[in-house]
Amino acid sequence: MKTIVNAIFIFCFVLIKSQSETDLKAIKDIDNTQSVSMALLDNSPSIVFANSLPKKISLNTSNLSNVSVEVTPFYYANHAYKGYEFFGLKDTLNSFKYTSGGFHNLSKVTLSLNAMPKDSATTISIGARTNILTLYNHSPQKLHEQITAVANDDEITAMAKSNLLKNGIKEPSVTDSKYEEYIVLLEKEKDKIKDEMKIDVRLSDFINQLKNPMITLDVSGAYSTIAPGNRISDFRTDRYGVWSTFAFSLNLNKEYTRFFKVYLFLRYLKDSYIEEDIMKRSEFTDYGVKLQGVLSKNISVAYEYVKRNGDGGDYRSVGQIQYKVNDELSFSGGFGKNFEISNTNLMTFLGISWGIVNNPKTK
Fold it and tell me: So which domain of life are we looking at (predicted)?
């Protein structure tokens, strides 16, 4: 069984590597999160997370023994978002309008597969999640005004032509032999104006705002099966659950790179297990909160508390830290008390997330 799991891991590694070598014009600094198939088993640095911007494919591992691969099928279809449609905004003539509904939400569905092999048993889980609500700090009309102020190429072109005219350089006819030389000068003048207006910086700030919406609501579901003794023929239902995560993000600086985030978590679980050769079931309701401080584009810290009600109530209390090396690779750690562990014992998790984004380039 472990050989099969390792083979899956190697296959996913090669797949992601080959995908990441393609020329992707991707929006950078997308958050890395855990997969729901891993979160179902409570065996990851965090089980409370939300991300309205799914990746094309990602690979997650916890303590190098719990392996999960997550894909967004929509990205493999013959369709690509244009501009800000990726963020649930459709760019019309005079304003944005929300497209967060119907097919757009279905396109954000991510599917995940997780394998956790041990000497005594192997657990395999599958899961799915999607975002069903996203609201930004400003209205669609206000967002459109912001982007128009920094990405109006016609206005910048007019300013550049005016500057050249002041210096005695008139725009020649298209058929004039000096027209190409004029275009070169015009582009240089436009670049100069953009630098003076800090267009690239302001555009980056605007994109950061869209990547960190004020409010999101995600829904998830997952199912796991276990094979005692690592025998394929012995696989049986282990656990299934459904849950939702509400997230609120408070911006802390004008560049939209530092945030304070609050997550509210509600989950229903049903476990199946054998006791004295009799199949038994337990039901739980988990609810909790997570507080997260995003200190920069690379580092964030968080604390997560989840209370479990039902048969044999328990709780999870975990401190977390995440370091993002780049847009594809991040490391996360968790330290504290997990479910089904006595109050005197502590647990530690080391998580690694590696994947690629395939998101459109904006204006």
Answer: Bacteria
List pLDDT tens digits, range 224-235.
998 887 677 778
Q: Is 53 exposed, middle or buried (0-12, 13-18, 19+ CB in 10 A)?
A: buried
Q: Is 103 in the same domain as 152?
A: no
Q: What are the Cα distances from residue 118, in Å, to 2, 62, 122, 229, 288?
A: 8, 13, 6, 9, 29
* Stretch 20-38: mean pLDDT: 54
List the domain range (segments joined by +) for residue 155. Answer: 144-201
Cβ 347 vs Cβ 338: under 8 Å: yes
Q: CA Rg, the chain, in Å? A: 25
Is 148 within 8 Å of 256 (Cβ atoms)?
Answer: no
Task: Examine the fold and report which residue of 173, 201, 229 is the final residue of a domain before the chain moves on.
Answer: 201
Residue 361 lies inside a defined structural domain of this protein: no
Task: Give the position of tokens 């800000």.
Answer: 84
Residue 343 has pLDDT above 60, yes or no: no
Q: What does the pLDDT average to over 177-205? A: 86
Summarize pLDDT for 242-271 with one digit per residue, the tens: 999 999 999 998 888 899 999 999 999 998
For residue 207, is it within any domain? no
Report how far residue 124's alpha carbon sits from residue 197's, in angstroms, rounded to the nearest whole number: 54
Alpha-carbon span 261 to 300, nearest angstrom: 10
Position 107, amino acid = S
Domain containing residue 219: CATH number? 2.40.160.40
Tally the domains of the chain: 2
SS3 content of the chain, % helix, strand, coil (to 5): 25, 40, 35
Residues 6+ positions from 238 with CB-CB distance below 8 Å: 123, 125, 224, 225, 226, 271, 272, 273
Q: Is residue 363 a part of any domain in this protein?
A: no
CA distance 289 to 287: 7
Domain boundary among 155, 177, 201: 201
Tens digit of pLDDT for each residue in 64-121? Answer: 778 888 888 877 775 556 667 777 777 766 677 766 555 666 777 889 999 888 777 8
Residue 321 belongs to some domain of the structure: yes
